[in-house]
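ERR on first pass: missing label on line 2. Operator R.T. fixed the label and resubmitted. Corrected input:
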Amino acid sequence: MTVPDKYVTLSNGLLKDSQKEANGLRTDHWVMDKRHSTYLFFMGVGEYAIVKDKWRNIPVDYYIEKEYEPYAKQIYGNTPEMIEFFSKKLGYDYPWAKYAQISGRDYVSGAMENTTATLHGSDILQKPGQLIDENTWEDTIAHELFHQWFGDLVTAESWSNLTVNESFANYSEYLWNEYKYGKDQADYHQMKDVNNYIHNPADFKKDLVRFDYDSREDVFDLVTYQKGGGILHMLRNYLGDDAFFAGLNDYLKTNEYQNGEAHQLRLSLEKVSGRDLNWFFNQWYFGSGNPKLKYSYTFEPVKKQIAVTIEQTQEQPFQFPLAIDVYDNGKPKRYNVWVNAEAKSTFNFDVSKNADLVNINADGILVADISDTKTPEQNLMQFAGSKEFKSRYNALNGIKDQVGKNPAATKLLAAALKDPYFRTKIKALQLMDLSNAEQFKALGSDVEKLTNDPKTLVQAAAISALAKTKDKKYLPIFEKGVNAVSNAVKGSFRKCNCRYRSFESKCFG
Ligand SMILES: [Zn+2]
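pass 2 clean. output:
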């Protein structure tokens, strides 16, 4: 690449030499000596600072606009740890000679996993006020990195089989979050993704592997990415971690530097697990939709049993493992059942009296649309009895129309403020209304404490919740917040419908 000398260049592989030319030009010679697909070819030129990092002996470079250079490590700095984590998880070391990341303005897409030279859109560029709240691009950094195996080392055989690139890259976001920030964070991230798919009815009819699309762009959708990630999570839970990751390793080794498709993934997973997976792939990869479930239960006092009936309301019934929590005397008991591909299935469980509550898909693993109506008391019980994030979050979300009307809803909000996961606290803070005297009495002092939570996003949500009281005793908290580093904390006053500069007269007048 011959460029004006003030510019740096980036391409696939390694920079072998760099020679000054006449007229202020320079020629850089990049060499990529391993096989990869044509669409992964990349050339980048521009005025960037190059911030150097390292994984084992492999260079890890961040090409960053000079204004953002001081924050390069805050933005990109987890990359070496991610490379190590994915290398270990897959039992397959990062296969390329270097890894570089660069960002571009006016980019047509979010990011692109060019082999050894990932390009990010400019939204990756964040400053400390944003980064202290959350590095909103970290999931994408993990996603594009994971493509270096699933996409670049083994490339989808055609756009029809894009799932073997994108569903994996999507699921890598789960894996990274689970490892780095805990399972609740991973579950939260995936819940948002899968809900986006579920709430987009047009996607219900699309097979994951799709041979009849109009434009290849159509395959880059919520089915291939978000639903596909959810499907891999089901597969992992069905097979267990050992078999699942051994299967991925076998798929990579068998198909390295070549193409892959969903059937090759199936064969690898079958080979290591000894299980037939046609039933799974036929319904989730070569079929469309998902279970849409209704359920009901009846108590049989003589047998001391409840009969739980699961109804699949979609046209084509699925078969799947399902976790059901039955609450007897306020305590949950987990049952793992197999639901056959039938419109209605009934399961009997022993109980001492009629169950207080039945929570289906209690582990949140099944990609399904579930109709649910629980009382605030049941939601409170589910919140208290669930280890899994999604069941707690669903319980909290389930009371949103009952806040201020039912004491159980207030108790649930109080419990949620003490949840180990910060997003649950934020959700509770958003649902409450502290201008209501009863809610304030029950929750106010806990909310005050959360204005010092280690997470600035929680602080911000707590300040917004307190702002609704319009109580002047909180002015010092607000005044301190105006000078906070966190953009979320600074912005939290706007939630009380005023600009913070004039909050005294508008909100507290
Ligand atoms: Zn991708």
